[in-house]
Amino acid sequence: MSALSAGKIAFQGELGANSHAAAKAACPDLEPLPCQTFEDAFAAVASGKAERAMIAIENTLAGRVGDVHHLLPEAGLYIVGEYFAPIHHQLVGVKGAALADIRKIRSHPMALGQCRKIIRELGAEAVKTADTAGAVREIAELGDKSVAALGSTLAASFYDLPILRADVEDEPHNATRFVILSATPDDADLEDGKYITSFVFQVRNIPAALYKAMGGFATNGVNMTKLESYQVGGSFHATQFYADIEGHPNERNVQLALQELKFFSAELKILGVYKAHPYRNLESSATAG
Predict the structure, then answer these.
(1) Burial class (CB in 10 A: 0-12, 13-18, 19+), 105
(2) Which of 136, 178, 256, 276 could form a disulfide bond with 151, CB atoms 3.0-4.6 angstroms apart?
(3) Domain with 76 in it: what CATH number?
(4) Segments of 146-192 assigned E as strands
(5) Are the C-beta atoms of 8 and 36 separated by less than 8 Å?
């Protein structure tokens, strides 16, 4: 670890953003390093300015976070952990404002998508911003009682603004999954517990290649928790897949499944092997119940 990176964790957004809160909770010993974009956060780790990055990758209500899956394979970084953060959005106003005053609500597109009910209830216009904490800062600077923001309790406290209504997310199970990135691989050792292996791959240009590539996971009893596709290189003919599986590459059934995947793939890159966050157990219990 370089002197530059000592004790820092990069995240996209301003101080007070949900990513900042997640970084504090998951890595309390690391100093937060706010970055304007995901690219900047990745670059901070790659260049040695930060030891880790905390990156939002998907949300239970709004789905995957745009661009992250494109950036991950090209960033040269490795996933060394995951963190699930319950997300509670606060409707933040300026001092003296009331709910009846609100005509515009500013926030990150993901937050706006998670709080459609309150926006519709107030008949407000949704205004997209770069991040939630930035939206709170902007309304503090505007001082307009008709403009509110969706942000965290941390951001409201940071700018000393009142919360007009608490926990306005559409569903109580709203949570965001973050991945913790490092410039060097740090795969978890196989011990007791549950593991996640993340990877990207492109299948060979042969008939039913994806079907055949996926068959190894089914026949070897490996649970695939995520499979997403996206175009690469600006071509409709080049498709890359991002996947998460439950298991460790040192387990025999996972080895066999990955071998079969590799046989039918033109490219396969493991992004990380890490311990599953306890939230996965809670989610499985809720689904089973």
Answers:
(1) buried
(2) 136
(3) 3.40.190.10
(4) 147-151, 163-165, 175-182
(5) no
Residues 78 and 97 in one domain: no
The reply to whether 207 and 275 lie within a common domain is yes
Helix H segments across the chain? 18-26, 38-46, 68-75, 109-114, 116-122, 132-142, 153-158, 209-219, 252-263, 279-288
Residue 289 pLDDT: 47
Give the pLDDT score at 131: 87
d(CA 162, CA 143): 12
Q: Which two tokens stand for residue 199?
A: 């990877």
Do 49 and 178 reside in the same domain of the chain? yes
Tell me the average confidence (pLDDT) per consecutive run of 10 residues in the chain, 289 residues long. 66 91 94 94 95 92 74 89 94 97 95 95 96 95 98 94 97 90 94 93 86 94 91 66 95 97 93 94 57
- What is the model's pTM? 0.84
Task: Report, as residue numbers or ranges, the catalytic residues.
Answer: 176, 178
